[in-house]
Every structure is written in structure tokens, then in C-alpha cells.
Amino acid sequence: MYALIIIVAIAAYAVIVYNGLVRSRQMAEEAWSGIDVQLKRRADLIPNLIETVKGYASHEKTTLEEVVELRNKAQAVPQGDVAGRGVAEGMLSQALGKVIALAEAYPDLKANQNFIELQKSLETIEGEVQMARRYYNGAARELNVKVESVPSNFVAKAFGFVKMAYFEITNEADRAVPQVKF
């Protein structure tokens, strides 16, 4: 009789832990889709930005081609490769920074209403990517803790739950503290 109660209790515990792991995995996957949507919005904005800049800075062709190439590489990263997507998007962000910096060298471009609107849209999307990234990393952290913690790690291992990668900045230059000199 006691053995049956213990078996039922263990089975009930395993079901509860399993459901918690499924919930955490679904939260992390949903969070990743939020990042994916924002990155797609940014990728869709890039061609318009490039066309606007081309009219003013035609001799900056290599910079513009680099952005397009990096955009294509970022979109070609296989679904689910969070680390690879982080590297590709980091490189794209750096190249986009160069395009935005071109505006300083071209006052007419800097004053162009279309460029200003595109730049504002890009800044908004970058902020939304950061919010989505924080949400995803929090959801991934919650799943990872459950996958690694005792005793839920036994259930996770038995049912094939694995840790999720964080969406991180991989470019050390982006992490560096800017030097301000007066």
C-alpha cells in the first residue's frame, strides 16, 4: 500500500516537473520569435536605408555592399542557431553604425527627411530588439535553471530537454566602454 502511494507521488511529481519544463521551453521559444520578428523588421528597413544613402554617398559603395551582404548572411543563419544569429546580427549592427555615421560626412543626407525617418525607425527597432533579447534571455535562463537543477534535471534528461543558448553581444567592441575626451 505504501509502495503504491510512493509510486503515485513520484509519478505526480514527474508530471508536474515535466509540465514546468514544457512551459519554460514554450516561453523561451515564444521569446525567440519576438526577437526574430524585430530582426526581420530591421532587415526589411535596410534596403530603404541603403537606397537613400546611395543617392548621397555613391562612392561609399563598399560600405553599402557590406551592409547588404551582412543582412543576407544574418537572414541565412539556420532557424534555432541562436549563437550564430547573435554573431551575424552583431556584425550587421556594426556595419549599420557605419552607414549612420556617413550622415555626418554628408550634410544633405543628414537633412534628408526620408533618411531621418529611416534612422528613427531603425533606432526604435533597435530598442525593441534589446527588449526582446532581455525577455528571451530571461526565459532561456529559467529553462536552463530547471534543466540543470536537482531534482528537475533528472526529468529533463529523461525527456530530452536541453539548455537554450543566450542571445548575446559577441563583438567585444560593442561591450567596450566608450572613451570620452574633452
TrEMBL record:
It is a single-pass membrane protein. This is LemA protein. Keywords: Membrane, Transmembrane, Transmembrane helix. It comes from the Bacteria. The keyword Calcium does not apply. Signal peptide: none annotated. Belongs to the LemA family. The keyword Magnesium does not apply. InterPro entries: LemA-like_dom_sf, MamQ_LemA. Its main location: membrane. The lineage of its organism: Bacteria, Pseudomonadati, Pseudomonadota, Alphaproteobacteria, Hyphomicrobiales. Pfam families: LemA (PF04011). It is found in: Membrane.
